[in-house]
Amino acid sequence: xxxxxxEQVTIKFGGLTAVxxxxxxxxxxxxxGLIGPNGAGKTTCFNMITGVYTPTSGKVxxxxxxxxxxxxxxxxxxxxxxxxQNIRLFSALSALENVMVGAYLRHETSLLSGxxxxxxxxxxxxxxxxxxxxxxxxxxxxxxAHSRAADLSYGKQxxxxxxxxxATNPKLILLDEPAAGMNPQEKDELREVVLRIxxxxxxxxxxxxxxxxxxxxxxEKIVVLDHGEEIARGGPAEIRSNPKVIEAYLGEAV
Amino acid sequence: MSLxxxxxxxxxxxxxxxxxxxxxDMALSSVIKDAYYIRLVMLAGIYVTLSVSLNLINGITxxxxxxxxxxxxxxxxxxxxxxxxxxxxxxxxxPAYLIVxxxxxxxxxxxxxxxxxxxxxxLKGDYLAVVTLGFGExxxxxxxxxxxxxxxxxxxxTNKYQSIALxxxxxxxxxxxxxxxxxxxHGLSFLAIREDxxxxxxxxxxxxxxxxxxxxxGAAFAGAAGALFAHDSGxxxxxxxxxxxxFLILTMVVLGGTGSITGSVFAAMTLFIIPExxxxxxxxxxxxxxxxxxxxxGAMVWAIRRTTNHFHGAKPQKSLxxxxxxLVPIGVGFGVGKVIETYTILGDKIYKANDLRFVxxxxxxxxxxxxxxxxxxxxxxxxxxxxxxxxNRRAVKVEA
Amino acid sequence: MEAVFPLVAGLNLDFNALPQxxxxxxxxxxxxxxIALGYTMVYGVLRxxxxxxGEVFMLGAYTALLTSYTMGYSPEAVKxxxxxxxxxxxxxxxxxxxxxxxxxxxxxxxxxxxxxxxxPMRGESRTAALITAIGVSLFLQYAGQLFLPANPPPSISDxxxxxxxxxxxxxKPAQIAEDGNVISTAMEVSITHGRLxxxxxxxxxxxxxxxxxxxxxxxxxxRAASHDFDSASLMGINVNRVVTFTFMLGSALAGAGAxxxxxxxxxxxxxxxxxxxxxxxxxxxxxxxIGNIPGxxxxxIVMGLAETFVTWLGFSxxxxxxxxxxLIIVLLLKPGGLLGSSKVEKV
Lengths: 254, 400, 347
What we know:
The structure holds 3 protein chains of 3 kinds. Chain B is mainly alpha-helical. Chain B has helices at 3-7, 9-31, 35-60, 68-86, 96-120, 125-144, 164-183, 185-195, 197-202, 207-233, 243-256, 261-271, 277-280, 287-310, 315-343, 357-371, 384-399, and strands spanning 155-156, 235-236, 284-286, 350-352. Chain B folds into 2 domains: 13-272, ABC transporter involved in vitamin B12 uptake, BtuC (Orthogonal Bundle), CATH 1.10.3470; 284-377, no CATH class. Helix content of chain C is 66%, strand content 5%. Chain C is built from 13 helices and 4 strands. In chain C, a hairpin with a 5-residue loop joins strand 2 and strand 3. Chains B and C meet through helix 6, helix 11, helix 14 and helix 16 of B and helix 6 and helix 13 of C.
């Protein structure tokens, strides 16, 4: 059974059809790429998967369950987490605290115990702090644990977002343009991190990217959108030589 | 085996807190004979609770609520009305009954908090602010028109009782609850909403539940304070809960630093005096002097802002500049004011401290916003670690 | 009607009074609309609720009052003329002078408030700017209490108003029984010449505003800044000047409304007299869709009608709460307001 199935997913905003009958399946352990020129509807797809938008028609099936239109916090609960195209960190909080928010999803003590600061709450807080530190180490941000998120460099902020998403213990992780604005070395490091996420942590990854080289080097399966419609689907080699893809990206080096 | 192991640190803290409040109560009651000053002490404690509870909603959860006096009022009236109706029919005596009354006030205000909080969920900052203000006013206007509750004449709470111990105990409980929240991982979910709602929700935070909880808990504490207030003063009327009170509490939170419990406490204990200013601090200012001083404050703000934004020198020089920015305009203003009042008719009209209360409040708010919007304490909290670090620094210096 | 709706019967409504109430509502609403325009334009450009706008309105009324004194209409001057056996009269030119001065003074005050209190807050969070606005509002109210005449609350001498007549039309005369009891009241409408002038002035001002906003360069700049402040400044628009212009425009309209209210309605002025109209006008702006200029006008009219309707129903003591109730209902059902749009936040 596929981890995620997009079944004829369509969304219309007023008169504009942003995404039109997009269909693809993601299997467990896939490194799946969602690419396409600007305005193709990629982030809109992400938003439909994570519950920010409700599809006008079609279904988003996760683990056999129809999650179309579920609120974002429930979707995080069932195991889908994401990073954002425009970084959305909790600016005034430290890096560690940011990741702890992710870890908090799996909390077991009640809110009341938080207000009362019961021994169990104290214990859980310490445990979450420890787990958050582990995730920070995965993305190589352990030394920045107590730095304010807003003070971190751009590349570190992107990695922090990934650590935070990982802390929610998702089955499927959505990365929205994780390599944007990174230099080649940072992109290599990012590639390593994503591979670790899939290999060591056994997550399934769906990512949006503009950098073709990055995608071709990393993703095993790719779907290409243009103007809200799917124009190609397959492995890197097929996509690279697909004339429709080349035409859509007109002028972009592949 | 140490006592802490037998009872647990928490139980000990509770016992210490209760004991401290009782001792404070006994000490103050015996030292201060003037009932008015006792009232002031209680007012200080009540405002601590009010500002810390507002901080939970505004500063910690980032929901802009400016109708807090409404919850305060609901608690006061609920406690007062029920006290008059039921006190004689139940077994408890004062002050034990006060605790029941606190719960009634808190409960009623919590319901109000729910009513205000639920619909407000979808509203953004500015709109939420106005809606909360609106709710506060609606509550006030409705109460004003209820004959059974005394209407505009007010309502007499027959079983008056003052308890400094309970007022400060309530304040301590409020502070403790908020601090506990921030020390636990649960607090992070509230802060996350403040920082970025969309991201918080994407990480699984239940926006509805968290926001409503903040409103309900914040309102409950305000209502509890209202219950104590009703019994302390023995008389409540809608005029005591006007918009100005909400703004006073808001100023406390802003001055202290939104998000900083310490700041709210500090600001509450300093600013609560403002409405009472006329009776305690007696000074008089002529119209000419007032104008000169107002302009001086303006100049001071300008000078301070200029130093903050445009001066890039070393720290000692910067501090010197700040000092001059305060002293020079105020000094000059004072001098010019003296001249004006001696030589012109503007010196004829005299204002007493009582008249200047709310101008001063408004000025405090404006000056804080223009100089340091993050407030006195910013996001920082008082902690024992910080105190220890002070000692460590000195120790290190000595050793070196 | 009474038979069909028992509740209506209990309220003892006078349906014959309805047309007059309609007219009253529109007139009150037109003043709200003038003030609401100031809120909506400032919000459109700065995304800030100018809490102090009600106080600008108040200062406009006081300006009109004090100007009328210098024109010779102060209570002492009027009394003296009577004692000397003379007559006090006015002419429309006085009104024109009054309204222009009120508008000019308010425009300046608005610009000053923006420059000294809001501009420093431009980089800060919206909450901070809003709190600053509250601070300015409070400051102006209480400083006004210190410096402006308020005991007893003065009002502009009715002698300033040169119009004394009214137009009226009777649809149905009152029916009075032989013993003098009233069987049914008259259905008539009447509008004083003063109020008619007010209405006409409001229409003129709004037409001018529309022309300014739609057909001049300054107006275009304002609309551009409303759409996207940062892009507008990148396009070479001097946003500071646009903001100042917007404040001056909105404040001037409030000043006009204040002058007319004070002169034609004889309202007693006290320093807090801008609070309620300010709140109600703000609700009107939100009702119409804040940032939307025609919306502010629509909102103002609706608010005026709602208020008069509630009074007609017999609940005049809740008149002021009506504003808040409407606000809450609108924000819950249609947060964008009647004519506004709910912009989707890009995630």
